[in-house]
Amino acid sequence: MESATKTVTIAAAKQFVSRCITAAGALPAHSDQMAETLIMADHRGHYSHGMNRLEMYVNDLKQSIADGHIKPAILKESAATAHVDGRNGLGPVVGKFCMDLAIKKAKESGVGWVVAKGSNHYGIAGYYALQASSQGLVGFSFTNSSRIVRVNRSSFYGLGTNPIACAAPGVDGDTFVLDMATSAVSFGKAEVNARKGIPIPDGWGADKEGKVTNDPQAVLDGGGMLPLGGSEETSGYKGYGLAMMVEVLCGILGGSNYSMNIRKWGTTGETADLGQCFIAVNPAMFGDGFEDRMQDLMDSHRNLAPADPEKPVLVAGDPARIHMKKCEELGGIPYPARVIEYMNGVGKSLEVPPM
Amino acid sequence: MESATKTVTIAAAKQFVSRCITAAGALPAHSDQMAETLIMADHRGHYSHGMNRLEMYVNDLKQSIADGHIKPAILKESAATAHVDGRNGLGPVVGKFCMDLAIKKAKESGVGWVVAKGSNHYGIAGYYALQASSQGLVGFSFTNSSRIVRVNRSSFYGLGTNPIACAAPGVDGDTFVLDMATSAVSFGKAEVNARKGIPIPDGWGADKEGKVTNDPQAVLDGGGMLPLGGSEETSGYKGYGLAMMVEVLCGILGGSNYSMNIRKWGTTGETADLGQCFIAVNPAMFGDGFEDRMQDLMDSHRNLAPADPEKPVLVAGDPARIHMKKCEELGGIPYPARVIEYMNGVGKSLEVPPM
């Protein structure tokens, strides 16, 4: 049974996460960046990639398998590109650095294309795409990840949930924000269901024999996710192909670990050495009037008559917008009380005061 | 019942298509480019985007709604970007021009990002991505298209099958080639099934009320495709989001028609004014050893034990490779005899000798 909900202000949630990360061994500036990305995830309603992941980051730092002090290094650079070594820094620190660089290049050269190796889990991919769109650019972000998606025609798991994020600005702050795992759903969603004890629908994941299952725990215990599209007949090979395309953009371009040589999910025996890709494009280099067209594209979809009047037609990013509005009304981010209790426990072990 | 198969040499098939396009009013060089792309589709086994589409291109030319003489114009240009007006030229002519430009920019600046407006249907998206990969680059190509994909939560059709193509070179000519509609399947596949009288599986398409159907004709008669992922519960909103991302890259960046203002499928009452995006990236700007990693990524997947020994694990591009090998053994491309008969009829009306 789900217990009651507790609302935590955004400032308090960020402060708590930042303190935990600092207590685990990172520089305060790095901890603040981690808190920014994790709490943005919760604020946008992507709870699977928010505070829910705090303990994983804490463990990486406590076991010195990620470095909370290092500054990423540019290995190669041109007007439009950069190859970055994240030097095993925290993912959000590496990601922010790379997208800042891509934005600078896009403003000067039309495109900024930055690929990092030596990174760690960077939270929601959308965070970095939004960095670009908030500057009037179109932003993309991709990361590889521990293998957890079943390869089509095999019971093996070859690729991560390798997300694709794209953000594009409309008018007056309205934004298209696609932020999706290339698996049917993200691993984090199965984690959340498992934590809440709720079964998962057909087509989300498979057990360790590769059979479709409704038990989220079977997915976590040696099973894995299905690629977007599900079975081969319903084009699961497209999700599998998209996941591999993301790997091309990340590990293969970047020269990091990739696919089957990335460490197993949740383990801290070796560094992650993830590959990540950050692209910013300046729409001013193409057809005039980008933002107006973007707004019209979004609005023309939102204004379609819904099949079910209770469920308005949405555009990518709208569910997050709705969730942020709810947070505004509540005066903070709603969490299940048991999650807060659990997180305060993580904090206690680090001598961090509760939220 | 499907009739017997006829094999046509690649040269004869190209010559026939080129003659038909020329007879319909295009310059021979434009007709040759159209033939290159259509017959590459058939050669790779993407029959839905090959000669099967000949009549549509012929009609566009005969009704002077597409221009078989025009040269695309560069409207804006930087070291890494170009905005191109296709000037209503044939899609393959515009596409080849744009990707050639992107390749040149990628070799000089690391990235070439070219967006066209004023284009027409350009055949398989993979053709252009392969242009880049054959030069040692990573290539991407995207196009918008007539709306035929059901918008999630609505019975309206707001976006096209908006494909994503990505090609990346491995070693010795081996190549990763993702070439996929962001709908569950391409519209062309429903066309082929309708022509052959074969029902379609659940999750491919919907009838005009927006209900899932197994009748390909109902999909063609005012119905439409479902986005990749199918229903909302199995993440169809991701396919819908990807289709919109492609529209951002094409019509919204390019300033062409987009989404609901693109002419209806198969009509020739107004120009198509499609938007298309072509990206080439030079892997030499990032981690050394790209091609070796790419090969290892592909081979490590192909070498996984298959769940069904009859069905080896494949990588995007392998089905095309298998089909091309079959063509090599046959000495040409196999077509159903009734398709050849139909196409020769199209040729006859243009006074083009049969294949």
What's the topology here?
The structure is a homodimer of 355-residue chains.
Chain A: E1 5-8, H1 10-23, H2 28-43, H3 54-62, E2 73-77, E3 81-85, H4 91-109, E4 111-119, H5 126-133, E5 138-143, E6 149-150, E7 157-159, E8 164-169, E9 175-180, H6 187-196, E10 205-206, E11 212-213, H7 216-220, E12 224-225, H8 236-254, E13 274-281, H9 290-302, H10 318-330, E14 333-336, H11 337-349
Parallel strand pairs in A: 3-4
Antiparallel strand pairs in A: 1-14, 2-3, 4-13, 5-8, 5-13, 6-7, 8-9, 10-11, 10-12
Helix pairs in contact in A: 1-2, 2-4, 4-5
Task: Output the keywords.
homodimer; 355 residues; alpha+beta; Hypothetical Oxidoreductase Yiak, Chain: A, domain 1; Ribosomal Protein S8, Chain: A, domain 1; 2 domains; 7-stranded mixed β-sheet; 3-stranded antiparallel β-sheet; 11 helices; 14 strands; 18% strand; globular
